[in-house]
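From the shared-data thread, chain only:
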Amino acid sequence: MDHDFSTSPILSPDDPGPAEKVGAGSGQGGTPAVVPPTGPGRIVLAATPIGNVGDASTRLIDLLTTADIIAAEDTRRLHRLVQNLGVTVAGRIISYHEHNEEAKTGELLDQVRSGKTLVMVTDAGMPSVSDPGFRLVEGAVAAGLTVTAAPGPSAVLTALALSGLPTDRFCFEGFLPRKAGERSSRLADLDAERRTMVFFEAPHRLEPMLRALRERFGADRRAAVCRELTKTYEEVIRGNLRELLEWAESNEVRGEIAVVVGGAPEQEPGKPEDHVAAVNGLIAQGVRLKEAVAAVADDAKLSKRELYSAVLSAR
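Structure, as tokens:
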């Protein structure tokens, strides 16, 4: 179905949008309380280019030039962006990053509550996705303030699309822990993850990360390293984890990096006779034959009838 998105309505200060449901318990019968928007102010999460400045949308440019306040993860990068875009910021610029967002969130929400339009931008991509912004959105939703987005470039989706790996189901895992033990524990939690996984990583930590991935998921697991996406020296290296580790070991890797890893493969159910011992083990613990067969068959994705026959034949 075709849509004319150029005529789709967008939120404006005069159209605060639907009320947000927050919390529970203050409505009758334990239903969620409805906190209506409190004024014409709004927060706009605005996606910025992840590399190529040509990816800046006309809506982003309009917001940068008309917003009352711009909360920027790095004000120097914001000034560089508007300079490259050839536009002038008329509103107030506030530094808002992971080290001060807790202290400044309340102040920003007060400005929105008073009717200001606040635009949130990060160094690249969509705010709140592995970047500052979540705390601001969380506070705005709780206060019943309007939050919307000017969508655009995303390193997560760009890497996923270019990886050559399945895109129908995926998850974003951000940065893995730096310490080896914590990283190993996180990867152990992903052992059975069937969806394609997207990670971010710093170039100087890419080699130990790929080594940890290979040790956990096996050398043959398919993956891709996406470097400097949309920039002049964009590079996507595809292969299995053994090949990618060898590449990282023999190259000086630079730039911003996303690593995409294929999900765990489907496990073959095996033959019924391979699971007879598991059934007998449950029987030895006092479980009835029928219940033991059902439990093992469900876990191994086997036919209960075939497994039952295999158990009887082995006696």
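Residues 1-38 have pLDDT under 50 and may be disordered.
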